[in-house]
Amino acid sequence: MHHMTRLLLAAVAVTASAGLALGAAAPLATASGAHVVDGSGAAYNDWGDEGTLSVKKHSKSNATRLWQSVLYADGAKWEDAGGNLHTFTASDIDGVFGPRTRSATEYWQAAEDLEDVDGIVGKETFGQADSFLDGPYNDGTVTYAGLVNKVNFLRLDGRYYVKIGSKWKLAAYDWRG
Description:
Strand order of the largest sheet: 3-4-5-6-7
Low-confidence stretches: 1-5, 7-33
Mean pLDDT: 83
Radius of gyration: 15 Å
Distance between the termini: 38 Å
Shape: globular
Order of helices and strands: HHEEHHEEEEE
Largest sheet: 5 strands, antiparallel
């Protein structure tokens, strides 16, 4: 049932957002030679061959920021030490794969009925998430239609960018800023 609801919400969100324009004139940041989230090929299957994100791998990066944007869009929950659930919010998108991100990732993996509910973002997790990407649109944006929010990424020259403040930053695995 969750998956069917997700598909219906995604269709509505994408349809509603098709006419939105993002400030495409925002400056792009670059990190020369960085390993980045690949944006070549069709958007709907971009992420299934991505690297791993966890508390031990690429834990401080803009690739982590990209993943945290997915958690935010889907309204994923994280569990505190007392067992209380909290919604992953925009303020949790900090590029640091810490306990909140790990817990919210486990919640997301369980909600998506994935085989590995381990708090590690690997090929299976990234691959499930890219099923909900739409675009790229004429301005180069790609929309992730979450259950609660939608987020946009920039896909330019075979690379993904995340918006940090008013600037687009390269979604690199080894760089955060």
